[in-house]
Amino acid sequence: GALATGCLIVLSATSSAASISGNQFLELTETQKGWYFLGVLDAMKETRDKFFATSELDRVDFDRIWEACISERPVRQHLAIVKTWMDENPTRWQEPAITLIFDAERESCDELNEEASE
Prior knowledge:
Blueprint: H1 2-13, H2 22-27, H3 30-51, H4 56-68, H5 75-88, H6 97-117
């Protein structure tokens, strides 16, 4: 049903050799964005050593973000965070959506940590 449809939508949106851009992500429906985001989260979690951890510091940073922020939020909240971040950063929309999503999550988590430490 909905899961299969969502997977097909995401698969068709990402079937080219390159990942989708921020511009393409913005053109997706809210349901498609949710499915894409779940795929991004799964990819981040499973491949962080390859794609996000070029050094020990990056690995620690990703693990901190994952534990403190990403794993605790529902998808709707993540999508609102990403939408707000993308609205504030239109000059980067041509970049891969997965990079933009990770940057939005990292900045959101850093802001949360700054508020907690005050």
